[in-house]
Amino acid sequence: MQPLISPVDHETRRSSFQRAEDSRPSENTPLIHRFPSNQTRERHLPTIIIVGFLLGILLSGLVIGIYLLVLQSDSENILPPVEDTITLFAGSRTKESESLRLSTEEDIVFIQQTDTRQCDNLTDCAELLRNVMVDSGTLPYSFLVSPRGLIFEALGWKRSPLILAFIGNFTDTTPPGLQVEAAKKFMTSAVNQHRLSPEFAAIGRNSTYYPKKLFDALSALPQWTQASAN
């Protein structure tokens, strides 16, 4: 009669049971491998490269955007040269006006406001001044200064007296610094080019509304005199 369990089977079962016990997790078995295998690193390498490339593009775009904003801000704070005045009327610069500016020097500059809203840029200012001309039938100024420091030529130098108008209403609002500095630069350049007498007087002129803040901003000019009635 054969035994129910042979020695060979008993040893085999014992070995299998021992291997199963060894494969079970114990307190000493780490839950997470501390270091990934080389195969795992190689598998994630393309993803890391792509993510790094996209981050580089994003950072480059951010830097370029900031740089463009800085350039735009600086360009808005640069006064245009007085020689680059913007002509509103095609016939404002004629041979007669050219000979007049060479043979005479103005000794008075009347300064007043346009009693209109302010304007932001070249297109906006040109449209505003065209509308004023259409509504009133005239634009009785020699030159105009925008809040951004642009100089517009209306009647130019061919009519006397010289009238320099600030675009806007400055009864209760102080004119922007760019506008005031552009007006000062314009008058200084006109003196250097013998269009204004070195002893010229800048006289504030009333319009529909009294431009108190404008006159206050210009009162420190050495050429400034008491405002005159319109």
Give the SSE layout.
Layout: H1 7-23, H2 38-76, E1 86-87, H3 95-103, E2 106-113, H4 122-136, E3 143-145, E4 151-153, E5 162-166, H5 177-192, E6 196-205, H6 212-218, E7 224-228
A few lines on this structure:
This protein has 230 residues and is an alpha/beta fold. The chain is built from six helices and seven strands.
Descriptive notes:
The longest helix has about 40 residues, at about 40-75. It is built from 6 helices and 7 strands. The chain has a 7-stranded mixed β-sheet with strand order 1-4-3-5-2-6-7, with helices on one face. It has helices at about 5-25, 40-75, 95-105, 120-135, 175-190, 210-220, and strands spanning about 85, 105-115, 145, 150-155, 160-165, 195-205, 225-230. About 45% of the residues lie in helices and about 15% in strands. The protein is an alpha/beta fold. Residues about 75-85 and about 90-105 have low confidence and may be disordered. The chain has a domain at about 105-230: 3-Layer(aba) Sandwich (Lysozyme-like).
